[in-house]
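Weekly sync notes, structure subgroup
Attendees: PM, AL, DS (notes)

Item 1: joint prediction request from the bench team. They want all three components modeled as one assembly rather than separately. Inputs as received:
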Amino acid sequence: MYGDQATALVHHLYKSSSLPPYKEDAVRQVVQEIDQLYAQLVQLLEKANNDLSDPRIGGTAIFFHRVILRNKRCVLAYLLHRFYRLRDSRYLVMDDRIEENLSASEQELLTNYEQLVATYSDKVQIDISSSLYPPRALYLEVKVLKDCGTIMTENGPVHLRKDTLHYLKRTDIELLIQQGYLLPTS
Amino acid sequence: MLVTRSKFADVWNMMRKQCLRNNHPVLVFVTCTVDAVCSCKILTELLKRDFISFQVYPVFSYAQLKQLFSQLDEKQSSWEFSLFIELGATVDLLQLLKAEMSKYLLVWDTQRPYHLRNLESKNVFLFDRHSQESWAKRVKTLPFVGLENEFGFVRGPNNAFMMEDAASLLDEEDEREEEEDISRETDDETVASFHWDNESCSLWDELKDEETNSRWERWLPTISRSNNTSNEDPNNPRQEHSIAMSPHELEDTLKCSKEALLYYAKLGWDACSSSILTYVLARDINQGTLSHVWLAILGLTDHFLDNHILKGDYEMQISFLKTELERYQTTTTTEKEEDPSPLGMLSTSFPSCENEMTSSDCFGGGGCGGGIDDKSRIVYSMEWKIELMRHWTFYESLMHSRLFVSHFATWKQQGQRDVLELLAILGIPLKDAKQTWNHMNVRCKRLLQSKFPVACRHFGLYDICFPSFIRVFSDGSCFSAMDVVLAIRSSLLFSGEAYMDTFWKAYESLIDANVLVEGSHRAINIQRYYMEEVAQVANRQRILSCKHFRYIMWKECSQSLKALLLSSLYRSFSLEIAETLEQRNIFTGTKPLLFLAKISEDEWQVWFLASNDSRSCRYFLVHLQQSILDMLAHVRVEQGRLVYYVENGYEKILLRKLQSL
Amino acid sequence: MQATSTTDTFQEQDINYDVERLRKWLVNEKCCNDILPYQEELVSGFADLCEFQQSLVETRAEKDELAIVRNLKEMELERIRYLLKEYLRTRLRKIENALFYLWRDKERWSWLSAAEAEYAKQLYPLITTHFERSFLGKLPEKLRALDERDGDHHSPGNLDDLDEFVFLYATKEMGNVTTDPSSPVTSTIFIQKGEVVCLRYSVAKHYLLDESACLL
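Output from the run, pasted for the record:
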């Protein structure tokens, strides 16, 4: 059935919770299908000399065209939604595995996007990538999961060794919590 | 310096003010015992209330502490106060850590004796349970004498006698190493006069006693001999000094050394837990909560289970905690709680639905506002010394409890028969006894309640009950303090590389009920393991007797034994063995028990248990420490003077030295 | 937030009232899918005030003020900063979601701030090049256009049905409100101050914009 591949693609994304691997081959197959259909459409129109009065020809032409458009729409939706998911995951805990699931183009898009957000932050002079959650307390108790080296806090440098507990200001350690180096205990 | 009870709040407030003014973080160093973990929780909560940032570092040995300290000094020097929980009282902290004069070290440690240098230092604050008046009466200041090293090892004033022995056993190289040790370890001599109080009156008696004096004569040769020492080392100030000193001064020095030796020989614990001390601090600054009381209870129970506290002192602390409990809980009883102990005995151990036991539900969550929620209560109860009774079947918990293992030798058939007889006398069918406690027949439980202590007396077990507390949750389930302590302890089992995780697991089990339940399963396995090991060890063949002591050697250690010995569980393990020996009358008379276990290819772990404070025990301990001091180059002192790690090969030398006493 | 001259109570009230306004606009943004006008004065005003409060906190820290007061001030600062950041983030997210639609609709474009407009302008080519690289570039020439209408004449990237219902809280009396302008039967309801009603968004929008109501 025409359009099955595209549907499957969208469905696959719909079903998964976070970002699944990029289905390169599925997209390629849809492209192939569109190419095929397009070739068929062109052939058909050439045969009929662009005369669509015959319902059979007209109907088939419209059918091909619609399928092509639908496929296109599906894939574009797939790409766009992957971008939205990527954007969302960026704000939550950084999962390294996400990077493996991206296509090359998506990775480039991600870097450019991050740069764009940074430029925007600079312009309004407010860092919008921090304070992702309403602040419940000024200080947080965190356990260090991986060695973070020495960080600068408002009260001076603090060395974050693995397997120690620290009680520090939220603003100083928010980024590290996002990146998964620290784990809030409460 | 000593901080008496009335001054707790003052010192703490001083620290608070400084920290808030300068925004310096507080460093907290904790050991891996249940008491330390509980105290750490209380102290960190107090710090959180004031928004003082802190850093918690679990430490496992003094060597690690030293390394950590120097690293911290390098990397961040902007701290002023550090807290030491359950470590540091018996060692010279300033010398060990080489802390700068601007730093203050606050120590909550119940191990004794205090290192005298800590007592006189202005930078080290030792929190002590005695109040000003009673402390002044009991012990006047004991100024630092200068005869001990940072770990509290005291060299006899002249160890020529011992050196001769050592020379025959060790080679030239070791001897030279030891000389360097001597000159490094001894400080400039400050001869001081000090008074002993009532408590230590017995020491004076000992010194005056002629019999003991003659013993001392053997150890501490006469003044004339001291002048002709073979190992003249120009760097050794004492030797120089001794040559120049008058006989009268030398006699004084000898007396000082004797007293110092005896002072440092009596290793033990104070009649309190550091969690109670920290709770008292919290209460003094009006920040005590119910959860702090529970943590204090756990810390105290931890000490009691390891025989760190005598029963009388323990009961005193329990009654103190009971009155404290009334501050936070109403004493009006609901219909369920007409009489605490039936509730305790009858209730199930597990919550009705484990999924409901989220951290906020059960333990009130960690953090500033965290505490026991209104629905759970702490109830005073007379508990039986049967470990993990509510988490196991009654039969199994009887068979594996320390009291029964030591008294009945339940690994033997006769022991098992005795237990079955006990159950028969109680009128409990075996089928019921082998049910998990939750599902045990209520009739049986009521029978137990009324008849169990009586039945035990019939078998010669008089000490089956002890006062404690249980924690009752809203769904009727409960955990006794003893069981919680055992569960947390099981998390502290040493497991190779991941030893840091064990500390954090124990810390988590204070908040997360699921971790605690897991811990109780592990604790059951540990109880089983104890019995197996005791069964193997508690017979005449395994225990070798000498004139003044007995010892057990493990030439090979299984993984589980190693895990046990390297964690803080080694003591309860050795206690079980010692009690079994005593109860089964395998030997007549009690002597100190020395344990040696080969924990790795290169090292033996050596520790001892002195079941009483008799004179012979004391002398044995002194002799042990002197022997260790002789071989200090080949011994690692990691946990103060309680446990030694002796190089492979040298344990034989140590044994030979001890046997020659 | 307290100004240094605490005697001026009207000014105090004003600032605290603004905090409430910021919060209301944040909730408005979160509750509706449509682009709303950018509250320039609120945002820039608060950005300045935050800096001022920060400097206050830092100078007071040098004196021996009660730590708890300092902490309270810092906490308040953090909360307001969060409100600001969340407001900006929500708006950016909406822009991203409705990028294609925005590209065509000039009215809504005017409701973006300068920085946001710049952001949208730069994001559009990013996304379109990504599409081309991944997919469109591989298609035949004639099919590469992006904003083709499909069979149902829906242009890509439409906003959701603007007539969905929203909950509205009336902060001022709104008077007679026509509930359904598109239906032939005109029905009006009288909305008093403090009432909560559920209306079509298209009707409610007008009242949102002049702050006589806010979304829940």
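Discussion: Chain B touches chain C through five residues (CB under 8 Å).
Action: AL to compare against the crosslinking data before next sync.
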